[in-house]
Design brief:
Layout: H1 2-6, E1 14-18, H2 24-40, E2 44-46, E3 67-70, H3 75-82, E4 88-90, E5 103-105, H4 107-120, E6 126-131, H5 134-148, E7 154-159, H6 161-166, H7 169-180, E8 187-191, H8 197-206, E9 215-220, H9 224-229, E10 235-238, H10 241-256, E11 266-268, E12 272-274, H11 287-299, H12 306-313, H13 317-328, H14 332-350, H15 355-361, H16 367-378, H17 382-386
Parallel strand pairs: 1-2, 1-3, 3-4, 5-11, 6-7, 6-8, 8-9, 9-10
Antiparallel strand pairs: 10-12
Length: 392
């Protein structure tokens, strides 16, 4: 009776997931895939925990199924998945010469978000440290471009992965410390990923630089373990690998059903900056501007205006406006609106408050006004921003 009824059920697609669990990015991708499967499955899933550089697992040699999602780290994995003759979606992008569709984080958008965060804190000196690999170079170039648009210079140090892996830790610390000593301070430094935070932190101490006073460190990936291990805890761009996993599963689902997908890579925008102590200070030497930035961020939920900010900064309105434009390349009004947008984004991410309640708490006169500002500055509505960390 049971076996006869089972014939009426459609066959579940069998999917192999060659995604590492040693990094938070891989873990988040798997969570995103799982979310898609819960909503659109069921699938029969093959997976086991492993690290990024491991060759395909032994069970994969005999695996037969309908689709694969993989982090194509090297040619061994590329060859192994191509031999299966089934649809494959890459979620790493290291092997750019394959014809396999790619879903990946948007490195340029990550760099833009990192630059915006540090610029908002008043920094005028910038630097980038990371691997000499294509994805890190993209972030470095994007960070330099975003800061360069405002006339700022950006120093960079890129070290080949082979050197990072083989050079003794203390030698790397000294090399990085020597570079850090050449930078103008205070300096906002973007790291290629959270993985480099412990090395960067040790190099800062070796160079006699205090994180939170001379240096602001900003990572990428929001790896909770690495961020909390750092001293002080590391601020980090949440790159949104959850969404990468969800979109990769959706793309594979279409391919397994015989549909076509775009040839261009699908790039997922970052979600937000998780602010911790490593960047939670102001990078300006002008006391009036520092006071103005502090007052604006604390009080943006109230109906403050430029005169209120100038009064707290202890300078005239015209002097404050002039200093903002000459040193920060934006107006005091822009700073107030930016602070309200950041407050609203935080409430959208962390609470279940309605859009109307969030608009009021963030200092907007009404929800429609907040929506108009969001669309102009972020290119999407508040509700779309709320969905950013989950499915779209």
């Amino acid at each position: 009776m049971i076996s006869a009824n089972m014939k009426n059920f459609p066959k579940k697609p069998c999917v192999a997931l060659l995604v590492e669990t040693s990094l938070s990015s891989g873990q988040d991708i798997l969570i995103g895939i799982g979310q898609y499967i819960r909503e659109h499955g069921p699938w029969s899933v093959y997976h086991e925990p492993h690290d990024l550089n491991r060759p395909p697992p032994k069970w994969f040699r005999h695996w037969t199924g309908e689709g694969i999602i993989a982090r194509l780290q090297d040619q061994r994995i590329v060859n192994a998945v191509m031999d299966k003759g089934v649809p494959v979606v890459d979620v790493l992008g290291v092997k750019r010469n394959t014809a396999m569709p790619l879903v990946h984080v948007d490195n340029r958008a990550i760099a833009d978000m990192a630059a915006e965060h540090l610029i908002d804190r008043g920094f005028v000196n910038f630097a980038y440290f990371g691997e000499d690999e294509y994805w890190s170079r993209e972030r470095c170039e994007g960070f330099a471009s975003a800061t360069g648009k405002l006339g700022y210079q950006c120093s960079s140090l890129l070290i080949k992965r082979s050197a990072l892996d083989r050079t003794p830790w203390d030698h790397l610390v000294r090399r990085l410390a020597s570079w850090l000593a050449t930078l103008n301070r205070p300096v906002g430094i973007m790291l290629s990923s959270d993985v480099r935070s412990l090395l960067a932190g040790e190099a800062c101490r070796d160079a006699g630089l205090v994180i939170g006073q001379h240096v602001a460190l900003l990572g990428v990936g929001n790896d909770r373990t690495l961020c909390e291990m750092s001293a002080p805890p590391l601020s980090s761009v949440e790159a949104n690998h959850l969404q990468v996993g969800y979109e990769a599963a959706a793309m594979l689902d279409r391919l397994m059903k015989g549909d076509k997908v775009p040839a261009e890579p699908l790039l997922v925008k970052p979600w937000y900056v998780a602010i911790r102590e490593s960047t939670d200070f102001l990078g300006v030497n002008d006391t009036a501007i520092a006071r103005a930035l502090h007052f604006t961020r604390i009080n943006c939920g109230d109906r403050i205006g430029i005169n209120d900010v100038a009064r707290y900064a202890r300078v005239s309105r015209s002097v404050l406006q002039r200093r903002f434009r000459s040193q920060l390349h934006r107006s005091v009004h822009d700073e107030i609106i930016d602070a309200r947008v950041h407050r609203a984004m935080e409430l959208l991410r962390l609470t279940d408050l309605s859009v109307e309640e969030i608009a009021e708490r963030a200092g907007f006169s009404y929800a429609q006004n907040m929506s108009r500002v969001f669309r102009k500055r972020l290119g999407r509505s508040p509700k779309a921003c709320r969905r950013r960390g989950g499915t779209m």
